[in-house]
Amino acid sequence: MNTIIHEAQVRSQLASVRYPGFSRDIVSFGLVKEIRIEGSTVQIQMALTTADVAVPQKIKADSEAAVQAIPGVENVIVRIDIHAPAKAVTAPAATAAGIPGVKHVIAIASGKGGVGKSTVASNLAMALEQAGRSVGLCDCDLYGPSVGLMFGTSERPYADTETGQIQPIEKYGLRLMSMGFLLEDGAPAVLRGPMVTKYTQQFLRQVDWGDLDFLILDLPPGTGDIQLTIVQTVALAGAVIVTTPQEVALIDARKAVSMFQKVNVPVLGIVENMSYFQCPSDGKRYDIFGSGGGQREADRLGVRLLGQIPIDIATREAGDRGLPVTAADRGGAVAGQFEEIAKALMRGLEMEHSLV
Length: 356
Fold this sequence. Notes:
Oligomer: single chain
CATH topology of the largest domain: Rossmann fold
Number of helices: 12
């Protein structure tokens, strides 16, 4: 009787193969692009950016040995596309520039609205600040700004008379900027494409962010003018994709991932929001939007699942009253999840920079 070989088995074995010189595996680095199984033969396609010929040789040998250990596997074929580091920059990325004083610019994105991206961005920014980092949060959703509500402030920013730089609002140790700070309550932002680009550039380039370890960009949903302006003009350290477990959200999340990959912005991982609901009365878990979608998508894309945030009444209440749950309930379970996501993000950035 022939043994059936599953892709999940192959991917699991490949996850045991370390990138030479690092503790991180080749799957989480995103090197594995395709796995094909034909009977007892497994074909693996990888892509790698390196100038060291010994690296792909080592990865190929270790991968073949790891997959060969799967029962039923007789032949393993590993192909690796090798790209030179100096060539791996697209035209849009070549025009991108850093923001003075800011070490890492991180985009928080989603393919569709309603997945809790702003909640994730706000609490991740707070968690990084609580970890001792200097952090700014820029609300780049010009049409639906929400950072002011989530941080309980309606202050108006002002421009320094000498430098002309806009001074961000400071709250809970964070530096904040949002279109919501510039509008009257309830007033819509009626903007055409050129004005959207102008405001986006002003928020990034004409705000006095000072010296920051992290500037978190809360992007609007989709892949429109704002996102394109940012990826083409700002040197992003990476992007975090927010989704829910259900397939309709994952479909759009893939579009966001594809956009960043096309301009060589590293996708640092996926955050699965609204992952489940745990009933406070009996502790029973309910997977309202399905389960495992975020992990499956992370595995498919070769990136990490940074965390799973549950549907939580306290989180919603904290956001509505202008105090992110990471500050309102610092020792709580949800705050702990954001703390772990922040740690994973920082570790991921260290790895990305180690590979440059």
